[in-house]
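pasting for ref. prot 1 ->
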Amino acid sequence: MCGINGIFAYRGGRADLDEARRTSLAQAARGPDAARDAVLDDGRLAFAHRRLAIIDLSDDGIQPMTAAEGRVTIVFNGEIYNHAALRRELEATGRVFRSRSDTEVICQLYDAEGPDMVRRLRGMFAFALYDHARRRLVMARDPYGIKPLYYADDGATLRFASTVKGLVAGGAVADAPSPAGLVGFALFGSVPEPFTAVAAVRALPAGSLMVVDEAGPSAPRRWFSLAATIAAAESAPAPDPADVPALVREALRDSVAAHLVADVPVGLFLSAGVDSGALSGLMRDAGAVGTTAVTLAYDDFRGTARDEAPLAATVAARYGARHVVRTVGAAEYAEDLPRILAAMDQPSVDGVNTWFVAKATRELGLKVALTGAGGDELLGGYDTFHRLPRMVRRVAPFAAVPGIAPLADVAVRALRRLGAPLPAKAAGVLRHGGTPGGAFLLLRATFLPEDVRAAFADPAFAAEGLAALDPAGLVAAALDPMPATDFGVVATLESAFYLRNQLLRDADWAGMAHGLEIRTPLVDAELLGRLAPVFARRAPPPGKALLAAAPTVPLPDEILARRKTGFGIPVREWLGAPVAPAAWSRYRVRRLLGAYGAA
């Protein structure tokens, strides 16, 4: 895990190495173990890298790395879990390696197969490599977008980095806010790709690659699609129900074992939930004995159902983990808040919990930890898997009546003004609830598109952003091709929005702020490919019972029976926020928009 950045003057001229170094310095927390930069191709290209050493701890793994007999130079952020198998295959063809790093495997594989080799990489990654013979830059991201990659293009020079703030810190990228990005944040609580909070910066989409040569950047080309993967699974032969538990167990064990590949110890974020608890058991099955498992506790939750420490301790004892409970209170939150906001690369209504568990884990000397993020998207754990299809079935017949949606909107707003106890988004039920994409907006959005102007000081800024964002089009694009089942639709939407733009992005900035690599065994394209045919046609969704039963020693029944509470943290109580719990999301959005001068 690292921080990468670069400047490519593809029309000619020279890349500014000082600018590249300023960007690299702004990303220094991402790679505390080494820093290096290089100027290539007669000065047209500058690469810089900040290293967090996880695989091949020797200096042979330092980047920028030139490999394949000088034909390829790369800066790479992430981990390739199948690098050893790929190395053996490449060595069998006569290729010679000078390091044990997964970075060199990417270079050699590209040299052998070209850009489409990304399909063979299992892991989380964002990289930029320079093909010296073809004088082109190739940039790529992993299937889910676990690792970020941002770029800015001015028509003559392309700049890229692991962070938006890093690009701006270089000095050549304007920091004007993006109307589309901030409106997207107001809707979803996170900025949806490919937009960012800065107008001049774009995210390379997850599962995409882009080539930059003397003609300029190509359009990003998607090489992996969640919707297509799930749609294909829906038409695949269904396994025998009697075989399902074994299929699930084997797929999960394989993914956990792959995510344990490291030359340093690997820890675990352990809550009282099924996802992380099952990971604890699966880690032991994979041979990870005495894993350090870190649980957050809060005085505000002590003795309540939201106190996760007691049940987490039960799980840790069951699997022989070394359990560490770290208590966080209001004073530490107040002290850390300026650093949290500085590390938060783009606005997010979440991530504070990950900041503190990452901080606690790094304090213990660990550089890598597994997290159970992604289990709900994979196994149908959110209530949206039930609520969304039910809403569409109930609302669609009424929404089809001409003119009824605007009338219902007016009526509901009038009733709310008279004091009727209706939710803020009730006015949009008939307008949005009759289609899967619209129902997802209704259930997940903080503000609905027609109400989002209320979050901004400048209505014109909001209107411009809403038009550029096109929320309905953004959701429709995520569902292309449209999965045939309710499970497929919701799994795709949850993965493409909440998981990608919030959970994974929060894990990246909050972990890297402490020099901690956070790995997600339940967010893995190979795992999805193996389990989607098992789950795609199940109704209701499979839930967590199969995950709980996957370890050799299953999770205790009280974990599976516990009511889902999420990875909670009492920020509202610490702030003394003068809002009811139902209004907390909108309150947080407005506060963060204010930090960007938009509210």
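and prot 2 ->
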Amino acid sequence: MKIEAVDFFYIAMPEVTIAADGSQDALVVRVQAGGLTGWGECEASPLVSIAAFVTPMSHGACQPVSASVLGQILEKPSDIAEIAAQVAYRSMDLLQAAHTWSGIEMALWDLLGKARGEPAWKLLGYERAYPKLPYASTLFGTTPEETFERARAIRARGFRAAKFGWAPFGDSLAGDLAQADAARAGLGEEGVLLIDAGQIFGDDVERAAARLEALSRNRVTFFEEPFGGASLVAYRGLVEKARGTGVGIAGGEAAHNREMAEHLIEFGGVNFIQIDCGRIGGLGPAKAVADYAAARGVTYVNHTFTSNLALSASLQPFAGLEEHRICEFPTELRDVARDLTLTKITPDAEGLIHLPEGPGLGVEINVSALERYRVPVEIRVGGKTIFSA
């Protein structure tokens, strides 16, 4: 099959707010080859990512992503890896390229799976896909009381695990302790509790470590992203301080290549590595990180906070790792993300989720939603239109 077309759909809610909620907009990618269609989703600024595909060449090492993708042959998994290598080489000075390529790469696995009649996880080398324990991923309430009610509601919906994140966590030590206590009280004694700091501590190990006692008291399984993704020294310092507390340190969603994630494991010492397929370069590098983590006793966890298309993609790279069981599961999606797919991934009677059974990513797109939420885009350079949708 020859890659004939790559199309982008910028979709968004009528109003996008400053809330740390990635489901307010999306960049959906459609790839066509051999009469088949594959779908993917970039976890990035839609407009900038589109531009990275169509931008005029600056020089040989700063070419648009399109230069490495259009016209390429897709017959087997290694073809996807070869295209990825070309993108990395030809667009090495185009920093947005990894984000743009991530959505395209997802779509290629979806397309190849449809061509072969196999799910993406099987193409990645797994013999079977294991069910995962979803943690309801949500934001902290503005007050501990609101967090308590959110946690109680999550428990009432049958979730056995929950993650609370971002503001107001990090505003004050007393406030953070109260939020952690409220989350545990609402979730109950048996629930798996996770906390996401949203990089609020910069690289200040002592500020982050001041929360460890309360997190340990509330039996928090992991403390996510206290620092920026490149703060390896800070991560290592906090991991050392957390030893003996029962609190694991998690990070990795900011990784936009395999090496960044591996360095966070090797030099940052994280206990949980969280990978977003819409940032790291797609399913291929995410699977490589999953293998790297498993060989070193580090737990792989997916990162996703958008649609069920992105959720399915995020599950494929560790589908066959039985012991890597917990997975992120957004529970409060905005309409644009919820309506994007006709396929819905939902917990079963035991509170577990299963990967879609269809070929590729196994997700059917609601094409009418693409039009309903579409943000018209036109990019003009030198008086000529180079992109319009």
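Residues 3-119+367-388 form a domain with the Enolase-like; domain 1 fold (CATH 3.30.390.10).
The longest helix spans residues 97-116.
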